[in-house]
Amino acid sequence: MSDIKVEKLKTYIETPLIEIDSMKGVGPFKANKETQEELGFPGEKIDNWKEVAINKIADTVSKYRSVQVFLDICVKCGACTDKCHYYLGTSDPKNMPVARQDLFRSVYRRYFTFSGKYFPKLVGAKDLDDEMLDDWYNYFHQCSQCRRCSVFCPYGIDTAEISMAAREVMNSIGVGQKYSNQILGKVKKIGNNLGMPEPAFKDTLLDLEEEIEQETGVAIRIPIDKKDVEVLLVAPSADFFAEPHIDGFIGYAKVFHQSGVSWTLSSYASEAANFGMFIGSYEVMRQGALRIRKAAIDLGVSRVIVGECGHAWRVAYSFWNTLSGLGGGAGDEYALQLQKQLDKRYPQPQHIIEFTYDLIQQGKLVFDKSRNDHRVVTFHDSCNIARGSNMGDIENGQFILPREVIKAACSNFVDMPIETIKISTFCCGGGGGLLTDDLIELRVKGALPRMQALKQAEESDAVNTMAALCAICKSQFSKVLPYYEFDPYMVVSVHQLVGEAIILDKEPKSKN
Amino acid sequence: MSLISILFILLFYFSLLLFVVGLARKVAQYWRTPAPFKIPIAPAPQTLPKLYLRMLREIFLFESLFKANKWTWFFGWVFHFGLVLLFFRHLVYFWPGELPEILLHSSPLRFAAFPLMLGLLGLLGRRVIVDRVRYISSPSDYLMLILLIAIAFTGALMTFFHNHPNMLLVKNFAQGLITLNWSELPEEGIFLAHIFLVLVLVAIFPISKLLHAPGVFFSPTLNQLDNARKKRHISSWALEKEENENGQDLEKNN
Q: Of B240, B41, B243, B36, nearest to A323 (Cα)?
């Protein structure tokens, strides 16, 4: 554990006074030449960066209504100023959503608006210079794009849109973040965030099959690249090896086993995560989505199901249909080609929670809840699922379904305080491409509001387990919980709870 | 006609021109710019009636602001509420010919000046006192409030302290602007100040944060339906790109 000053947790969330420049710095490690060029960005900061950046801003505002409108219409009412977990945890005023946007907005005003061109001081317009670029790099990598601010903005201004645009502008001039861009390079070359090649991927899962059989006495299969099965499961690659993720993955396998639905993983598209969203690149995000499209077509599946991953589910639910036509209701040839293949009786794509929930509703899964009786469980709503997606196609389904699945498998469930969950959920502190050790101080401090809410649930209801639905949340919490004197093993996958309580049949059920 | 009258008449049309042209350009820009992704913010409506209700609640009740901060909501709402009532009240001057029944009874609306002023002073106080809001404020943010306060103050002075200019002259002047049958305007200083400040407000509308009024209708996080996996949503530029790529693929395959 590195030496980061953490204040003793209170059981309520307090809005701190601003401490100017308390998080000023150089930001996370920058990507090297090779990493940048792999993604089609300039290898290093280009000489005429200012000119290129301004042109890129012009291009972005002409392509994204969100960015254009949000830059224009903020009235600086201050409603968002105490809503960001990074502000609450660091007190740096540039971590207030509006101030973070203003780094971008002040430049936009300077070069693109009448008032900013002729009266810059009056309207807070600023030149794009080296100092400003440093602030961009530093503070746009202190935003996890969780969209909590947007819920409270009277105009729905979404800082995530601005921070994605800013990162896209920076990449276009050769200033990229090492962590996100390196990972994207691995997906592009190998197919998953870990850069785990096909043989290693297959070996890992073969070992896992054996382990499950030893432990349960049931031969549960984890099929890879199996053609003409019903379901293609796309999970975040952390699910295949990381703790506590892997126990959630075992949970999926057990659910498939019990359901009798045939399924497969793809070694070509072995990654649900799509960091292309974090860097705001339509093209890079689309390349990730196209891998999954290709896998679905090649394997001839009729359903695509996504594992427990927060931003992956936002990308899948909200963007896949746009990016690659994986969804429903298309009018164009390209998307129809895939949509004809998909089974219209199910939403496409579907979340593993929706799959499990449906089976529970149909009475197809039987649980021994007492196996989870040593736990008092609470649920951390992952930001991208909570505010950027849905489940079950019912209003607020993304909050209802996971809780119902947990309750089916556990007797003791309590929620954390209402202002810290559901639409108002606090980010874990590690989302948006910030889950890297060079940002550990930010991650620890950004977790503060969630930790406070957890403390409150611990004191009032003796909560000892926090279930999460996102690979990043799980990794982040495992790392930061000890800083706040919690047990790092208290964070679990929702499907770990499912997997532990589920009663298995020796032979897989036939489908009907 | 007096020089002052001529100047104000010209100023009126000039401000109006800036307002109409500027606003039309911005609205056209918002309209034209595609929203490439579905990004509705939770709680996102899944049906059109619910979407309309959401927009109505945001526009008339400031629902999100209510969730965010009760003081800002209160000051903001009473200010806007007062503004709407007073706008309606001012139709009395501009309505050409016989006044409709409803405007004849609009006199009590003048008291809307009080919530308006309360809201503005509250918002200004908050901007000065709360350290976070002070940090994000530019000179223009203060000036906008001061401009509105000055408009409210000059208006209230005329209405409540018996130094209103001759109503008939005001009415003739205002109607003349609409019917292009121009007449002299009363030359009391306080009245001229009131009119001048309003015309400034009108003129800077399309180049200032007042764009939040038309802009809120275009905010993709608020105005989109949550139906991404039921219906394909794609922007013109992305579709074009896709078609080009597919064309190339076909060529390759042939």
A: B36
DSSP state of A317: I
**Parallel/antiparallel/unpaired status of strands A377-380 and A303-306:** unpaired
- State residue A265 phi and psi, 5-degree precision: -95, 165
Residues ≥6 apart with Cβ < 8 Å to A344? A328
Identify the pLDDT of residue B98: 87
| Among candidate residues A197, A221, A245, A307, the one with its CA nearest the CA of residue A467 | A245
ipTM of this complex:
0.95
Total Cβ atoms within 10 A of residue B101: 7
Res A1: pLDDT: 62
Q: Token digits for A313?
A: 């589910």
Partner-chain contact A99 B42, CB within 8 Å: no
- Give the count of alpha carbons within 13 A of A310, CB side only: 32
In chain A, domain spans? 184-353
The single-letter DSSP state of residue A496 is H
Determine contact: A395 vs chain B, CB below 8 A. Answer: yes
Q: Are B39 and A158 in contact (CB < 8 Å)?
A: yes
A72 touches chain B (CB under 8 A): yes
- Specify the length of chain A in residues: 512
Residue among A61, A122, A321 whose CB faces B233 most closely: A321
**Other CB atoms within 10 A of residue A131 CB:** 10
Which DSSP string corresponds to A336-363?
A: HHHHTTS-TTS-SSEEHHHHHHHHHHTT
Q: Tell me the domain boundaries of chain B.
A: 3-34+69-223
Q: Is A32 left (phi over 0), alpha (psi -120 to 50) or beta?
A: beta
- Residue B182 at interface with chain A, using a CB cutoff of 8 Å: no
pLDDT in tens, A18-76: 999 999 999 999 999 999 999 999 999 999 999 999 999 999 999 999 999 999 999 99
Tokens 């000023």 belong to residue: A24
Measure Cα distances from B79 to A294, B56, B118 in Å. Answer: 55, 18, 7
SS3 A434: coil
- Let me know if B228 is exposed, middle or buried by CB neighbors in 10 A (0-12, 13-18, 19+): buried
Can you tell me the distance from the alpha carbon of B184 to that of A304, in angstroms, rounded to the nearest whole number? 74
Residues 6+ apart with CB under 8 A from A76: A98, B133, B136, B137, B138, B141, B209
CB A97 within 8 A of CB A149: yes
Residues 6 or more apart whose Cβ sits within 8 Å of residue B240: none
The pLDDT tens digits of the residues spanning A263-283 come to: 999 999 999 999 999 999 999
* DSSP code for B165: P
Cα–Cα distance for residue pair A268/A187, rounded to 1 Å: 10
How many CB atoms neighbour CB A503 within 10 A? 11
Sorted by sequence, the CB contacts under 8 Å of residue A477 that are 6+ apart come out as A380, A428, A447, A466, A468, A488, A491
Which positions ≥6 away from B129 have C-beta within 8 Å?
none
- Lookup: tokens for B189: 């200083």
Residue-wise pLDDT for A315-324, tens only, equals 999 999 999 9
Q: What is the CATH number of domain B3-34+69-223?
A: 1.20.950.20
Contacts with A121 (C-beta within 8 Å, 6 or more apart), sequence order? B139
Beta-bridge partner residues of A231: A263, A303
- Are the CB atoms for A280 and A164 separated by under 8 Å? yes
CB-CB neighbors (< 8 A) of A152 in chain B: 64-65, 67-69
For tokens 């996100």, name the residue: A180
Nearest-CA neighbor of B200 among B1, B9, B15? B15
- How far is residue A495's CA from residue A488's CA, in Å, rounded to a whole number? 18
Rounded to whole angstroms, how far apart are CA atoms A80 and A424?
Answer: 12
* Cβ-Cβ contacts under 8 Å, A80 against chain B: 68
Count of Cβ atoms closer than 10 Å to residue A142 Cβ: 25
